[in-house]
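Usage

Read records sequentially. Each one opens with the input sequence:
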Amino acid sequence: VQLQASGGGLVQPGGSLRLSCAASGKVFGIDTMAWYRQAPGKQRELVASMYWSSTTTYADSVKGRFTISRDNAKNTVDLQMNSLKPEDTAIYYCNVRKMGSDYWGQGTLVTVSS
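and closes with the structure output:
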């Protein structure tokens, strides 16, 4: 499975960004699609995940501001990020899980700064 993420960039506090990730290759059997992030000096953390098209999980720090969505027909997962804060600055990684194995995208940088 190959993952291609896009949509990162520089945004002012309070602004919005939308990240997109497309999966290709042997995509049959993907159950979970998710976004993680890693800030400088910190461990990678789960931001949001979606199991099939139903169960969603969000980090407490992004609840109410970020929304994950998934298109199973296109094998894509998006992350709409609103009310961005400087502490959201990180490299964001797309992740999918298939039959217990994790696959990662290359990461896209999100910088929230005035």
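Summary fields computed downstream for this record:
- The mean pLDDT is 96.
- DSSP finds no helices and eleven strands in the chain.
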